[in-house]
Amino acid sequence: MSATKTTDNWPLQVSLSVESIEVNGWDTDRWQIDAIEPHQDDKPDFFHLDLDLHKDERTAYRFNLDSQQPHLFVLCNEDEMDNTLTPIHITASQDDAASFMDGEHKMLEVAMPQAVQCWIDTYLGIHGELIDCGKKKKKGKGRSSER
To answer: DSSP assignment, residue 70?
Structure first.
């Protein structure tokens, strides 16, 4: 597995922490992302994830970058036996993150580091902005053209 950053892939390291809190009289665990940084050496308690950019997600990246506080989203597997989370995927697309929220997985989010924001903005500059305009009707293809 390569740890070299490219125009569409950035290897990152993520660490998580958990704290026990009381909610409505019940003890529960609250997980959060402790740190996110470029992958360097394998550090204990850090998980290696590749942030991949895809051309069909350009609109979602721009939407995220233009938000008041851009975020990265980390998909985690939850082991109910030992009550731990393991990060398995990272994305900058809110659309991608929403598609994974199905109850079997836990989604954590963290403020996007400025360096990652600049990298994604450069990606959009290289590949252009993707605007979802929907499908346009072709001229002469409606019911009124059948007369």
So the answer is: -
